Amino acid sequence: MDVREFLPFIDPENLSAQNVLDVLLYLFNQKPGFIDRGHEANNRDTAWINAFLFRLKVEINAEGMECFVVETVGSSVDKMAELR
What we know:
Elements: H1 3-6, H2 17-29, E1 39-41, E2 46-49, E3 52-60, E4 66-75, H3 77-81
């Protein structure tokens, strides 16, 4: 996914905490059956979605282009208890 094409208001070279959350939510909403039960911005690398902490990492793909990779960092029992 080219962030500039699908989310033109985001500069992938200068992400804010809200940008990271926006990208992750965009990606998750592309998955069939995804339901957003709660989310919050965390920092410029990670965001909480459905009580799981996800990291948005910049990597270089096989074609030598920068790309984002989503990594699951962990979960929170406290945040799970607060889900809608």
